[in-house]
């Protein structure tokens, strides 16, 4: 029996979580897939018999190995790129259609519900962010001519040049990764018996296709070999078909069956992995970087988009970076740098021989949704740099104003995350040694550790369990000698506070105390048995009844001049899965650095006038304006970095 459930739209991806740092195998999987590129004129504008004859007119091009350009052998494909300018229709939110593959394992009611919710949530987030030119009429995928055809007519002057001359009798079906594509989703195909004569035999007729679909996501629930050999794997994916402009049209995500079943299943983590995989399939893929198109300043003019050409290059330290205009600009904004060579660095640990990876360098863009490993869900962000990259594919219009502040490395300058700077023991983000402290969001206690992706740099990672300050159930059974309080407004503070009755001195570690914001980077804290005390950002305070001090973190806490409570509920909508319901950090207010026009000069890999795109600049300016008020306001709250004696008020219980 067919198990074909429809969900509005959705996607998947391979990931892993928390300390069991699994890794995303997308590149490996994508490498094994033959991507079918539709020929120009085969997009679903025709219906019925005409489309199959049109489709057959030009050979379907295949990229057998993403890194080898096989296009030259398929003249039809070359032609397809000759004309990209056609009537540009407006961009509308992408319609992602999810299709549960028939091959999928049967699921229990509970697991099916989990899957449906995760897919639904994923699709709704992604379609809020990305817009495309809608495909008119039903989406029909193309068949791989190299599969159904034994040979093509090769006489260039013949009428049936590059059409199928003889059918491959063993041809059965088309696949997308491990999924057999239903015939109903596919265009027909025909064989031409003579190089010049019109007589043809239809091998297959066009299917009905899928209405209202811009991307078809096949979902395969399966306990595959990859799933069973890599226990941390939740899902993996690849795209398998693109339109003539190179935009991916269909892909498959394999979701490891056991992961849906497990007791520790987490909706947030699953959705994040699915978004990560979907972003890969939609264009954030090393096999696609060089097919990204520069449409920024042609969109309004109605002109043609052209290829960026090569968008990746090595920096002077030999690190591969992406240098497209919106990406450079986004990273400059994030790090508060005007460095013109600030391309966004790609992960070197999973790079191929040419240095390309489909992930950001973890040390620089740690909590990005497109880092190679995703951390604790509450810290993962759909950041501006990732959205800028999707914008620079040229296939999408991206609502950049919905980017979530990365927090990690904010305003730290262009050298942030370099191997030479991460051992600085005054860093707010990296740590040295192996002590206990606070994760940089201050929501969790953490332990100073490294992992392969950090390449020797160390950060405070959340403890395996019980590290969330905001979770009441983490409260220890016995009275805390350090005055800890675990509740929703609690955060992690470096401190060596201990009740005066304790005689031994204690070392500084992460402890949970309540906090409330009183202004930009201005807050009060509360320790067990005390009232609210000002905690000057960057300073430290003593607390009566306790020995030792509490250090007051800079920058991270109260980065909006709003009380934490209202931040928790504001403007999260579909993004609540990304954990921002717990973070008091959203879009941060970085003074907008004037773009340096020299950024592109002398870098022929970039397009000529990257800053002229109103599309990119407008949201950035808007964000700036809305933050300006807070920024100016914030100056009035300059805090002395001094130790302040605080007399505790009696506890109100
Ligand atoms: C998925 O979302 C659609 C609307 O976006 C809704 O009608 C449907 O009930 C949702 N499915 C589940 C399982 O939540
Ligand atoms: C014919 O199709 C089969 C199955 O898809 C494939 O294994 C075989 O290589 C094809 N033969 C030719 C000549 O294309
Ligand atoms: C190629 O096709 C043309 C036109 O049909 C024909 O005149 C010519 O002889 C063909 N060449 C070969 C090598 O078959
Ligand atoms: C697509 O929409 C058209 C027009 O509304 C309709 O006739 C057709 O049956 C639909 N196709 C499918 C596959 O739903
Ligand atoms: C972008 O997102 C913001 C915030 O959700 C929304 O207000 C705005 O209308 C969106 N812009 C577009 C062009 O969709
Ligand atoms: C950004 O950099 C400028 C120039 O170096 C500096 O004056 C400014 O304070 C920085 N802004 C932030 C938020 O760090
Ligand atoms: C930080 O590093 C400096 C120089 O390496 C060292 O003198 C200092 O003691 C270190 N501070 C801490 C708190 O480890
Ligand atoms: C973590 O949880 C496990 C199982 O619930 C428990 O046995 C263990 O003691 C906990 N570890 C910490 C540090 O709380
Ligand atoms: C707490 O730490 C501070 C700073 O490291 C140190 O000066 C102080 O002596 C410590 N106090 C106790 C009671 O350990
Ligand atoms: Zn990935």
TrEMBL record:
Q: Where is the active site?
A: 277
Q: Where is the signal peptide?
A: 1-22
Gene3D superfamilies in UniProt:
3.10.170.20, Leishmanolysin , domain 2, Leishmanolysin domain 4
GO BP: any one term = proteolysis
Cite the binding residues for Zn(2+): 276, 280, 359
Q: Which residues cross the membrane?
A: 616-637
Keywords carried by this UniProt record: Hydrolase, Membrane, Metal-binding, Metalloprotease, Protease, Signal, Transmembrane, Transmembrane helix, Zinc
Q: Name one GO molecular function term.
A: metal ion binding
Determine if Signal is one of this entry's keywords.
yes
Q: Protease as a keyword?
A: yes
EC number(s)?
3.4.24.-
Cofactor: record remark: Binds 1 zinc ion per subunit.
Q: In terms of domain of life, where is this protein from?
A: Eukaryota
Q: Which cofactor does it need?
A: Zn(2+)
Question: In which family does this protein belong, per the annotation?
Answer: Belongs to the peptidase M8 family.
Which PANTHER family does the entry mention?
A: CILIATED LEFT-RIGHT ORGANIZER METALLOPEPTIDASE, LEISHMANOLYSIN-LIKE PEPTIDASE
Report the protein name in the record: Leishmanolysin-like peptidase
In which organism is this protein found?
A: Coilia grayii (Gray's grenadier anchovy)
